[in-house]
Design goal:
Layout lengths: L1 H21 L1 H7 L2 H23 L12 H21 L10 H16 L3 H24 L11 H24 L7
Helix pairs in contact: 1-2, 1-3, 1-6, 4-5, 4-7, 5-6
C-alpha cells in the first residue's frame, strides 16, 4: 500500500502544481477558489507522500558513500538559502530566474545523493523531475524575464543568517524523526 500512496502523492503534487500552466483558462475561471483547492491538494499530496514513503518496503538500489553526507549538507544549506532568500529577492538569489525551484531541485538532488533505496529514488527523483518540468513550463509560458535588482549586502547577510537558522531547525527535525543528518 505504501507504494500506491507514494505514487498517488507524487501524482497529486505534480497535477496540482501544473494545472495552472497546462490549463490556464480553466484555472482562471475558478478564481480564488482555485487557491484553496491547490493548497488542500498540496497538503494532501505531502501527507500521501510521507505516509507512502514510510510504508514502502525498503529496497536497496545502491549504497551511497559516507562522504556524500557532507556534500548533501552543503547542498541543503544552499537549497534552504535559495528557497527562502529567493522568495524575498535577496542578492545572489535574485540573479537566478527561479530561485525557489532551484532550491527545491537542489534539495531533491541532495537527498538522492544520500538515499539509495527505491522509495527515495522514486520520491526525490520524481520531485526533481517535477521541478525541472515546472521551470520548462514557466519559461515557455513567460519567455521574457527581467532580472530584479538585489537588495544589498545587509539583506544578503540577514537572509544568509535566516537560512542558516532554518537549516539548523531542519537538521534538528530530522534528528527528532530518527535521522541524524550531519554524519
Amino acid at each position: 500500500m505504501g507504494w500506491v500512496l507514494l505514487i498517488a502523492g507524487l501524482a497529486l503534487w505534480v497535477g496540482s502544481h501544473t494545472f495552472k500552466r497546462l490549463h490556464p483558462a480553466q484555472r482562471a475561471a475558478m478564481g480564488d477558489k482555485a487557491k484553496a483547492f491547490v493548497a488542500l491538494a498540496n497538503v494532501l499530496a505531502i501527507v500521501l507522500m510521507v505516509i507512502g514513503y514510510q510504508q514502502a518496503a525498503f529496497v536497496t538500489v545502491w549504497s551511497p558513500p559516507a562522504f556524500f553526507t557532507h556534500i548533501n549538507n552543503l547542498l541543503m544549506l544552499i537549497a534552504v538559502y535559495f528557497f527562502f532568500a529567493g522568495s524575498a529577492g535577496a542578492g545572489i538569489a535574485s540573479k537566478i530566474r527561479h530561485p525557489q525551484l532551484t532550491g527545491f531541485k537542489t534539495w531533491a538532488f541532495a537527498h538522492l545523493l544520500v538515499n539509495g533505496d527505491l522509495a527515495s529514488i522514486l520520491l526525490f527523483g520524481g520531485l526533481l523531475g517535477w521541478a525541472v518540468w515546472q521551470m520548462i513550463l514557466i519559461n515557455r509560458a513567460e519567455p521574457d524575464w527581467s532580472r530584479p535588482t538585489g537588495k544589498g549586502l545587509v539583506f544578503e547577510i540577514i537572509y544568509g543568517v535566516v537560512a542558516l537558522g532554518i537549516y539548523v531547525v531542519i537538521g534538528l527535525a530530522h534528528n527528532y524523526l530518527g535521522v541524524w543528518p550531519f554524519g
